[in-house]
Structure of GNAT family N-acetyltransferase:
Amino acid sequence: MLIRKATIEDLPVLLQFEQGIISTERPFDSTLKPDPISYYDLKAFISSSEVEVLVAEIDGEIAGSGYARIKKNPDSYYDFEKYAYLGFMYVLPPHRGKGINQAIIEELKKWVAEQGLAEIRLEVYNDNTGAIKAYEKVGFEKRMIEMRIRI
């Protein structure tokens, strides 16, 4: 397995991954607009110095993806001004269970540390137990639960 920075040439595959993420998450959130929708500006992310987009290759095929994005902390009561936000975690179904997410996250953690940041955050749907277990396996802990009500 090779973990590397994503390039503009990877964009067609990454756009398919984005739709895979959306279709996986759609059952967890009835407020998502009907297709087609997009979560990310992947082209801008790939060329930004504030975002590290990584892909995992297996036998020359892009099998997984993820990014860490530097975000400014809006709350002055924390002891850090910036943190990294983890997103775009996706692995093709035939390659799941091979440690791809873990390998990508480990490389993103290195990049985050090189940026002088000490915290990574992410969001995951409460009912997405598989993703929660995968994130806990690499050291993430639950802190806050966002609650919503439609009126």
